[in-house]
């Protein structure tokens, strides 16, 4: 709370958002609960008592006993740009450095889980072993952008988190969706529903009701986002300008589990891709995380408008933007339309139901039938992507990117 008030006083944050204030009070209470139960939660990895018991964790994992933490976690959800990630990060930064804690994007977390499962292939209960490894490393787990779109993730989440909570893990997470809306409309969702009950049992659920998108308050400008195919030639010039005297070459980067990603052109931390090479191929979050471990700038040519005919590419583009934003990378692109217009033909089931007369309501101004894509996950995720694309082209974001490069150098 003190740090939140300091940032408001210094002008880093805007005052007057009662929704954020309510959330920071929830986080303050959680912080105090964790301090009060530090020993029973075995948070401090440096304490002698913790060192003595650490060797017993593997054996205790074989016993059919429950050891839920006395402290309940926190599930924060709300609209895009309302400050969920900022508040969770503020909370995380103020935790003692000696605590067993981890802050990670949900995409990255699940990639890590699948990688560990692959390593323990053939073990009787690989998921239990993976959960034990994670809880040994981090009793306090902070997950950003909790969202479930993959059936493989959906089918293991309940068992995974049952193990984690049984090992004493305290979960803090952010999401655009309320727990009951997670994986809505997904394949075999009935097998996923117990996970929702598990989360609500072990976490306090708190909605951030602010309607303000703070990402759009900054000086959003065109930045490096160019609308129209006429800029494709200029895009290559901009790429060459960014890499300076270096000569771009095709490159190959390593991603998880031995996979490799071919980069058409790369040099000096900048990668150049046609849109089709990055979003029309069977790539996913693992490939994108691998990309941004090696490059701080992505130059992407030809982002199209999204609709039913390129639904899969839309899913990949949203994942790409999420990973890029998480890594605070710079985005340079040409696109068919503005961020808002890219997704105007993506609608949720609820939006689609409001169309009373499909034949007349689904016509555009020219009288052509719109290629509407009815997809709940895309419909909810598109607002986050539009918001992030807007912020990533703001002066503040680009200046921070330059500052990060200078610091790294």
UniProtKB/TrEMBL annotation:
<dbReference type="Pfam" id="PF03969">
    <property type="entry name" value="AFG1_ATPase"/>
</dbReference>
<dbReference type="GO" id="GO:0005739">
    <property type="term" value="C:mitochondrion"/>
</dbReference>
<dbReference type="GO" id="GO:0005524">
    <property type="term" value="F:ATP binding"/>
</dbReference>
<dbReference type="GO" id="GO:0016887">
    <property type="term" value="F:ATP hydrolysis activity"/>
</dbReference>
<protein>
    <recommendedName>
        <fullName>AFG1-like ATPase</fullName>
    </recommendedName>
</protein>
<dbReference type="InterPro" id="IPR005654">
    <property type="entry name" value="ATPase_AFG1-like"/>
</dbReference>
<dbReference type="GO" id="GO:0009507">
    <property type="term" value="C:chloroplast"/>
</dbReference>
<comment type="similarity">
    <text>Belongs to the AFG1 ATPase family.</text>
</comment>
<dbReference type="InterPro" id="IPR027417">
    <property type="entry name" value="P-loop_NTPase"/>
</dbReference>
<keyword id="KW-0067">ATP-binding</keyword>
<keyword id="KW-0547">Nucleotide-binding</keyword>
